[in-house]
Amino acid sequence: MFWDQRVETMERAALAALQLRQLQDTVRRCSEHVAFYRQKCAEAGVRPEQIRTLEDVHRLPFTTSADLRAQYPDGLVAVDRQYLARLHTSSGTTGKPKAIFFSRGDVDRAAELIARCLLMTGVRRGDVLQNMMTYGLFTGALVMHYGAEKVGLLVIPAGPGNSERQLLLMRDFSTTVFHATPSYALYFADFLERKGVDPRRDLALRKAYVGAEPHTEETRAKIEQALGIDAYNSYGLSEMNGPGVAFECEQKRGMHLWEDHFLMEIIDPVSGTPQPEGERGELVLTSLTREAMPLLRYRTRDITSIIPEPCACGRTHRRIERITGRSDDMLIVRGVNFYPQQIEQVLMKVPGVGRNYLVTLRGLDEMTVQVEFTEAGFDGQVDHLVRLQNQITEKLRAEILVKPKVELVPPGSLPVSEGKARRVIDQRVL
Ligand code: AMP
Ligand code: ZN
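# adenosine monophosphate complex -> structure
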């Protein structure tokens, strides 16, 4: 089902023409109202009237998260203060947050994009959405909330954590869909198992939207299997409204990125040059309709690639692959580079491995991977655990070319964060 079939299935040529008009308008607004962009564009030697084709986007300067921090609190605002309707911040790991402003129109457009995403996954009026994301400065919960209301769903603003209460709400109000981080979804599945709740028998759950942090196909499969649902990957970032930037349709083969609102590029994260279509690299987004705080060529740091082939669902907006990590997430251990997702990919395929893990780096380059085993997979025999441990060590070594110390720990013993999961703790003394 479509929210806006005309736009979602627009011919590529018409979509490109629309993007060009919006790009020109965005660049003009940035140069007129944002001193930062006026100066950056001058330095790059580009004037708004020189943007004549979509290719000309490459002439524009990049915007980085360091720029957002330097312009904190409101250096990037492009409208008069009276038109600001909402403030969110982006979950930064260090230092100042990034302030993200929305106009009234931005709030509406963000909700509209969520409405497209939700209908794309087959929910409809009458569905009950339990929103298990953090309400507050984080965009994840509120933007989803507004979009789900727009579709006409009954929305339960549950927030994260407190699994007992989540279960109570789910039972009493017959929740059919939930929205959570993948790590919380797995934790919750574990919780149900410990409680002896069989979601297929005892709950009305059919679907879940999982996002806000990287996760692998194996993790999705685990969530789906444990809960008996369809899980859809949801991608977004506060700088571009939050959730609703790209989302899976029922085909579940990559996420449609709404190209009438965002212009995407994939670049080589080191050189900054565009990658050929289909090649993996860093996703760069230019907002095409944001009023309060438009951003030109924002470097997301997220690694993905564009799927150029048309999708069987009929939508013409191109898809991006599941995010495989962030260019600044890459770990270098004993001279070898890899992404934490590679570890997850290996772990989630091993039978007997539970739902949570934690990588700790200490000393010079000591790497420990703590892995929860499953209650079901452990029969009390220590040598079975030792075998599992050795098996995991070997598989990890084959994948990341570094031999970590693997520690098996009981289910539920590793910390679960309410917001985004912290999978790697780096305490090295380098
Ligand atoms: P925030 O600005 O706090 O909303 O965080 C946005 C970041 O979360 C993105 O730039 C990604 O790194 C990450 N993220 C969000 N959704 C996903 C997803 N579905 N898969 C992988 N990473 C994601
Ligand atoms: Zn599709």
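# post-check
The CA atoms of residues 133 and 141 lie 5 Å apart.
The mean pLDDT is 94.
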